[in-house]
Amino acid sequence: MTKIIVPIGPQHPLLKEPVSFQLTVEGEHVTESAMRLGYVHRGIERLCQERTYVQNIHLLERICGICSHVHTTTFCQGVEALLGVKLPSRALYLRALLCELERIHSHLLWLGVLALNIGFDTIFMYAWHDREVVLDIMEDLSGGRVSHAVNIVGGVRFDLTDDRRVTLLRQLNGLEEQVRILLGVVEHEQTLQARTRNVGRLSLEQIRRYCVVGPVARASGLDVDLRRDMPRPPYDGLTFQVPVRQEGDVWARTLVRMLETVESVHLCRQMLDLLPPGPVSTRVSRRVPAGEVVSRTEAPRGEVVYYIRSDGSDKPARVKVRTPTLTNLITLPSQLENVNMADVSVVLSGVDLCIACADR
Amino acid sequence: MLFKLLIFPGFLFLLLCAFVFDWVDRRMLARFQGRVGPPWYQPVADFIKLPTKEDTLPQGVNATVAAALPMLALAAVLTASVYVPVAGVVSASFEGDLIVVLFLLSLPALTYFLAGWISVGVYSILGGHRSLLQYFSYEVPFLMAVAGPAVLSGSWSIASIVAYQAQTTWGAVMQPLGFVLAVVGLIGKLKRDPLDIPKAKSEVVSGSLTEFSGRKLALWRLSMNMQTVVGIFLLVNLFFGESRFFDVLPAFPVFGLKALSILLLLATASAIYARLRIDQLADLGWRILAPLALLQILANVGIGG
Amino acid sequence: MGFSLRSIVYLLPQVWRVLRAGPLTVQFPFAPPELQEGYRGQVVVDAARCRGCSLCVRDCPAFALELEREGREEYRLIYHPDRCAYCGQCELSCQFGAIRLSNTFTRATADRDTLTRVLVDRRPSPPPLDE
Ligand code: SF4
Ligand code: SF4
In the beta sheet, which residues pair with residue A293? Predict the structure, then answer.
C-alpha cells in the first residue's frame, strides 16, 4: 500500500493551538510520526528579566490560557520564599480555592475538546456549559474569566464575604451534580468507550522513563500528586483522594480527570468551610534579596516547576518554567506509533496538550 | 406530468424540503445540546452565499470531472425522487422501481468516493477511501433492511408496498428490527453523525470535499440535503405507509409528520453518540447489523410467504 | 463488550432534561452580555484624585499608561486601551484610589489610534478633552 504523509497542523481542525505533526500513513494506519514545536514561542522567560516582579505576575499569567492562575501561584510562591515572608492563611486558602476552581475548569474544557474530537458534540456542549458555571464563579471572584490577576507577591487581591461564601457553596453543589452526570457518561456511554479504550496506552514503565506527570501519569498507575506528596498549606489540612487508574489508555485518563474534578469540588467546599478569618495580603518590598529558588505546584495537567534567580534588584535575573505539557509531549511519538488514523485525534487530545505552555 | 416533475412532488418541493429539513435538523440538534440553533433562513442563506464565493480547485485536478461529480450526485438523487411517492402522489412508478431507487441512491456514495479519488489533497484521498469502506459496511444491511418490506408484500414496487401496508399495518410495526436497521443504514448513507467517518472534521478535515468550494460545494451540500429528504421519504413509504389508523386526517400533513419523526430519530442519534471508527463500523455492519437484517428477512419470508 | 439497553441510549435522559430546560445561549451582540459586578473592563480615572505620581505607569505590565510631564503639576495621563491587558495592576498600584477598572468592555475600531484616551489633563491651558 502506498505511503502518504498526512500533515496535522500547524493549522488543523483537530488542533486548538499551533503544533505540527507529520504522519506517515499507510491506508488508515499511522506508521511514523514527526513533531514540530515552537509556533507559539513568545520568549516569555527572556521578557521576565526585563520586567519587575510586579509586572511579571501578569506576564506569566499569560503563559497559559487555561491554567493561568497556577502559573502566578507558583511564581509568587517562589518569590515569597526568596523574600522569606509568611502569608496570612486566608490568602493561602483563597489562592488554593482558585487553583481548584481552575482545575475544574481545565478538566471540563478538556473533556469538551476530547468529545469534540471524537465527534461527540453534545458532550462538548454540556461540558463547556458546566465549565461556564465555573468561569462565572471565577469572574465574580476575581474580575476575570481566565486571567484572574488575583495573585500578588504577599497574598491575593480579592476577598470573600460571608454571603458570597454561602452562594458559592450552593453553586458548587449544582456544579457537582452536573459533573457527576458527565462522569456517568464517561463511565457508561458505549460509543465514547469504544473510541477511547485501548487507545494511546502508556505503561507504567514508559511513564517512569518519560517522567510523565499529572493525570496522564495517574491514569497509568503512577500515584503522584504534589498536593498530597508535598503538602503546603492549606492542602495539609484538607482531606481528598488522588484517583489512580491502572489501564493507561485515554479512557483511564478521562476517568481520572473527571474523578479529580469531583474531588476538586469537594476541596473547594472544604476550603470554604474552613476559610480562616484575617487579612488577605501582607506588604512586601519590591526588591527581592539575591538567591535562587525552585517552586512547584500541581497544575491541572501535572507538576509545574519554576526556577527563579534574583540578584537583589526588583527584576529577576532568570526565570525558568517547566510546564507539565513539555514532559507529556515527549510520549506522543511512541503513542502515535501503529495507531489508526482515526485514533490520532484521540491520542492527541488524551494528553491534554497545552502548546502555549510548552512553547512559552 | 411536468407539474409533477418540476413542482410537486418534484424538484421545487424537494428543494423546499431540503432547506426545511436541514433547518429543522440543525435546530433540533441545537436544542438537544442546549443551544438556540440557526434561524429559519440559515440553510437558504448558506446556499446563496456559497456560489458567490471564489470557486477554486487545486492544481492537477481535472476541472471537468470535479464539476461533473456534484451534478451527477444531484441528478441521481433527483431521478430517485421521481419514483418516491410523497403522500401517495408520485411522478412515475413501475414494478421494480424500489430497486432503481436504491441503485440511484447509492450513486452519490460513488461520486463522493470519486471526488476524493480525483483530488490531490491527502485529506480528500483519505476521505474518499473511507467513504468506500463505509459504503461496504452500511450498504448491505441497509439493502437487506429495505428489502424486508418488499419481501413481506411480495412486490418490488414502492406503491404496492404502501398499498400492502394500508391493508395490514405499518411496516415498522410488523418489522421493528428492519426499521431500526434501515435507519442506521440511512445514517451511514447520509454520512451523518455518528457515522460521519468519511468527513470527520478532527481526522480528515472535510474528507472528499476538503478541496471543493464555491458553487461546487453548494451543489454537494444540496445533493446531500436532498438525499436526506429522499431517503427519509423512502423510509416513510416503506415503513410508515398509509395506514387505516390515520385515514381520518389528510394524507399530506400526516406524511410530513412521519418524515419529521424520522428526522427526529436521526437528530437524536447524532446527539447521543460519538463518532465510530471505521473498523468499528465495519464490525458493527457485518457482525451485528447484517445478521440481524438477515433474521428480519427470514421472519418476513415466514410471515409473508 | 457488555451491551445493555441503558448503555446504548445512555445520554437520552440527559438530552431530554436539557431539552426541557431550554437553550442557554446568550445571544451576545443582540442581547447584553451577562457581566459580573467586578468584571475588569475599561480603565477610568477620577481626575480630581490623581496626583500624577506615575505609580500606575511604572507597574503597568503592558505599557498601556503614559504620563507626559511638563512641570511639577502639569502633566497628562494617557491610556492606550489597545495595549491594555485589563489586569487591574494600575488600580492596585495607585495609592490615591484615582484609577480603577469599570465593567464596560465593548469598544471596536478599525484604527487603533482613535482608541487612545487622555485620562487626566493638567496642562496650564488644556486644549479641549477628547470625548
Ligand atoms: S489594567 Fe493593567 S494593562 Fe491596563 S492600564 Fe491598568 S495596569 Fe495597564
Ligand atoms: S492614577 Fe493614581 S497612580 Fe496613576 S498617576 Fe494618578 S495618582 Fe498616580
Answer: A308
